[in-house]
């Protein structure tokens, strides 16, 4: 199928299973879901699942590039919470001046994009120029953003002013032709990400840097610039995800975006991107995100499984999805 | 030399309790950090109480420490004992087990110990226990549900983070609706989180064609539930019952929102009760040892104004 054609030529045996693994897992989940509950394939449920996947999905596309280039970002969940808080504060502060309406929504969006870009830049700067381990830098910024949003919210919840909420609500709940905006934005981000990864020089450079940065450097790839850009893109995408998130409940709190970073990383790895870098697959990441949301959805739609075990079932399916795509020779 | 100073300090700590203070006494307050709405309110009320009492009692000094996990809270308490020479400790334990022995060490040093909300694993360590009433919280919620649905009906239940607190509440609730004709269609963990309960409610709405009411059991979860109901456009759900007493929800009750006809309190300000009582014990001869249970109260349109705190973040 088309999937196998995009596989790089250096992949050897077990190609089919490796590529098809996540798709198989997704198909099995859809069949199980449909068998367990008649409403599973209803338009409303599909819209719900896809829309709620959008936040993690948009972030995970950016994470695919970071991981492909040999990096990691643990700060995205906290960053999303902080940007959401900032966006709400800015809109509330500007409300008396500008009044409720679309211009104010654009101010909010601009805030989120600028904050995301800056946050990504800070991570990238510390990792590339200051040469600190990505794990340590983003573990640090994770704590910083989480504390900042707690501090901004005074430990409570930051809520968008009521007058503004009805204006901004359609960004999450409305759309074109019955397809809601988060789904459209997620699709656009995923398609652009796939094109950049496959067709643009940047995608190849990211893979080269992740595979062997010394060789990449001798091949006149600007390693630091590529690494920096992956973090900045991820920051921008966290901003985009936040723009989709804030309209949903119109609030941000210290519990916003908790563990999003791990869900995004899990989705990337389920999708076939290598955690140690060097190879990335954006469409796989999309499948990974859908698998994670579907597990939750199916567990909510069925009885018989104790909710205490949700995490265990999720863990088993994640590991199975990754086992399916392991090359037998890779054991050595 | 060293020996005598330590003995002197220990003697001072044990003997200083009822005697008129010749020097300032230090009260340590150790609480979990503001990681969710309720804890945020609790932090606010703790800070308010400390500010107020420092003015009222010049002879008292307060050390307030917030911890983001049990290990940090243990360190906080050990530091207070070692470096601040506290005469009393007010602690809201993150978890019962890991905090039991460090708090016991404080009690063994002769200091007064007040435990708030979550009990320690071994009873009898604390001098004063200020507790919320979790089974009572569930019971009041269940009784309201039963009275609001005299003909019974189908409800869905949202649970918090899996803990003893959550179990006690749900058991209290189930006991109170027994025989009322109310049928629980499903229970799922919303983790006291708006986003989680939003998605769980979306899925409940897909799963069941008719839901008469929702016991969200928490105001944060109720907000997520309300957003999901609004999105679905369904009108079979008659009302949502939250809990805790978040000011936005109390305002809805006060203003007569038909979807939020009532709320049940589990006040984060109980930390203030604990700090105040401890200060009274430190500065007067009034006895304050024992257990102080703060009941859960039903908030309706009639009394909502009394439970609305303008400045509180929760």
Question: How does this structure look, described?
Answer:
The complex is a heterodimer of chains A (332) and B (314). Chain A has 332 residues and is mainly alpha-helical. Chain A has one domain (26-324): Orthogonal Bundle (ABC transporter involved in vitamin B12 uptake, BtuC). Chain A is built from 15 helices and four strands. In chain A, the strands form two sheets. In chain A, strands 1-4 form a two-stranded antiparallel ribbon. Residues 1-14 of chain A have low confidence and may be disordered. In chain B, strands 2-1-3-4-5-11 form a six-stranded parallel sheet, with helices on both faces. With 314 residues, chain B is an alpha/beta fold. Helix content of chain B is 45%, strand content 19%. Chain B is elongated. Chain B has helices spanning 2-15, 37-56, 70-84, 96-108, 134-148, 164-177, 194-207, 219-232, 247-254, 270-283; strands at 25-32, 60-67, 88-91, 112-116, 128-132, 153-159, 182-189, 213-215, 239-241, 263-264, 290-294, 298-299. The relative contact order of chain B is 0.14. Chain B contains ten helices and twelve strands. Chain B has two domains: 2-131 and 268-294, Rossmann fold (3-Layer(aba) Sandwich), CATH 3.40.50.2300; 134-264, Response regulator (Rossmann fold, 3-Layer(aba) Sandwich). The interface between A and B is large, with 32 and 39 residues. Chain A: The chain crosses the membrane at residues 19-41, 53-72, 79-98, 104-127, 134-153, 173-196, 228-246, 258-275, 282-299, 305-324. Chain A: This is ABC transporter permease. Chain A: It comes from Sulfitobacter porphyrae. Chain A: InterPro entries: ABC_transp_permease. Chain A: It is a multi-pass membrane protein.
